[in-house]
Amino acid sequence: MKQLYFSMLLALTSISAYSQHTLSGTIMDAESGEPLEQVSVYIPQLENGTVTDENGTYMLRNLPEGNYKLVISYIGFKTYSISIEITQGSNQFDYQMATSAIEIDEVVLSTPFHKLQRENVMKVEQKSMEDLKQQGGITLSEGITNIPGVSSVSTGVGIGKPVIRGLSFNRVLVYTQGVRLENQQYGGEHGLGINDAGVSSVEVIKGPASLLYGSDALGGVLYLNPEKFETPGETSGDINMRYFTNTLGYNANAGFKTSGEKLKFLVRGAYASNADYETGDGTSVTNSRFNEADIKTGLAYQTAMFKSELRYNYNASELGIPEEIGVQNNDRDPLMPYQELSTHILSSKNNLFFKKSSLEATFGYTVNNRKEFEEHDHDHGEEEDDHDHEGHDHDHDHEEESLDHEEEEHEGAALDMRLTTFNYNIQFNPQWGKMTTIFGIQGMHQTNENFGEEVLVPNAITNDFGVLATSHIHFDKSDLQIGLRYDLRSLNGEESGIDGDEEYIPVLNKDFNSFNAAAGYRMDLTQNIIGRLNLATGFRAPNLSELTSNGLHSGANRVEIGNPDLDSEQNFQVDLALEYGNRHLEAYINTFYNIVNDYIYLEPTGEFRDLDPIYNFQQQNALLYGGEFGFHLHPHPIDWLHLESAYDIVYGELEDNSNLPLIPANRWTNTFRVEWKKRNQDYKCYSFVTLQTHFNQNKVADFETKTPRYHLFNVGIGGDMRIFNQKVGYSVTGNNLFNENYISHLSRLKADGIGNIGRNIAFSLNIPL
Hints:
The protein is mostly beta strands.
């Protein structure tokens, strides 16, 4: 495989550049007729763009011949897209932009046809990283919960996993740098594993995306778009700093990027550190502290016919695993148990453009190291009498805790796992008139290895292979998208332990396969109303943990035992969306009905192992349904005033009429926001007030407890100011301003009666260089 990869790269880079073709023009204000400066002119398929100068003119160079989507966007104006044919030599396109108070409509990158959101057949939620940070979230996992229909299963502040319409863990696939993120994501004891620095925007596909991404996308996809390279001929840098009062936390990152006509480079480094968070009643949640270091870098080379992009991300974090309330201090070094996680992500994306088609080959190589340190693991001899089975004693002083921490590091981790993943995604895109088709081959080779004394899942090799075909047909007032896919997954696990022992894991050899299909239709019902109907199937092969696990999960305080007889989950989902929009009002209704056959879930057996409850994996058909509803009003002529309301609801139940676990409570979010922006973008200012209501969650699984209603009141202010003739961005956000003491239904600390984070004020500063 590696020889094939390098041979393809050599073949692509050896192609001689064709004669250069350009596209130029002038962008004007339709009302005043004046030229517009800093307008974005972008061709998403080529990832080639620029901005207009003070005369409203632009020029794109190194363009291949063919038909491409051209997107023109600017704050305060309606985003415009058009299919344009690039011919030999110089091409001209001028445009006059119409004003609009609606936010910029962005190109959706998580689906393969690069449409604007309003043109996309599949409904995709999209938020810029800047908008999410303005909400005051400490981590990326917390930030994405501001997207309707998205929640997070959390263990404190530093550990969170995305939940999309009630489905989570291995049912939600995360993509970063254009490749799937593989980091033992089934585990709830560690976080998302991605720092928000160097992420430009987040896209969420709600519902089965197995057609595009294969297994593990049964519940949806969280797609993280990386920071863009600088426009040709430009060099820039910035420093960003954030401080959080609740955790005494700080988060800083700095970046630099430069681009020539063909060669581009960027780099960004980040570091974050947080002490234990405080609940609404002022209690510090012992060992919820965490530290994280992150670096992202990229190199790109682009000619008229060929584009290659190489990116690398290294992320290292220390995560305390909170279990009970103990020491009350502001230390940042984690107590035991805690985890050390490191992830290396190397991705290579290569595009070759022809006149009537294109070829894209993306390769990813990920190495994830997961180490867990537990106090009882270094006990031996007389020391065994000094510690209980849970492996921690929160009553000893800080000096002893530090000594234990150093001794444990010296002796090594109890749990030490290394997951190595190579994946590939090759797509051929021919264009036939109004129909765009993609033929693709995707696959993954993954190796799991154990180096510690504890084994949760055995040494194993996982292989995925999938083929797909999907087409998008554009009509005058509607679009049709259809597709079909076949996947094969094989799992081969080694024997672990001694036959007859309670922690024995037998040999595993399992194969899973599935056909999946999707069909979607988007139609302009009227001039202002868009309708979308999507039908899709999805599948998820059971993961190693569900098939083979046999051990204690410290973060969950339970023993999980796998079931080698599990079948693949299969689902069928219907999505119906209606959207209304004019210059000053947007409203939407998104509903879904999701049937999941052979849904895999954990259920307590009533038995214990060393005082820890034992949970077994079971299967049963399940049903989830609900939706998101909302509106956004910015009345004329006070377009700077915004009233936003969003309500998301999801219900989940098993075939025996019992309720699914980890289903988020219904949520209603209301925001009053004022926003002023100058069209030259030299200055902006905003402020907001948000009231978020989480309703009672009384529909709970048999082993869950009900969760009462609670309200969170958030405020924020931010914008740009000039210091020594330098534009500096700032924001101040207060979350849970009334310091309500509450417990989220999706908190893994709920069983211990430990509350979520109390009042938190976030200060941020952005300094362009």
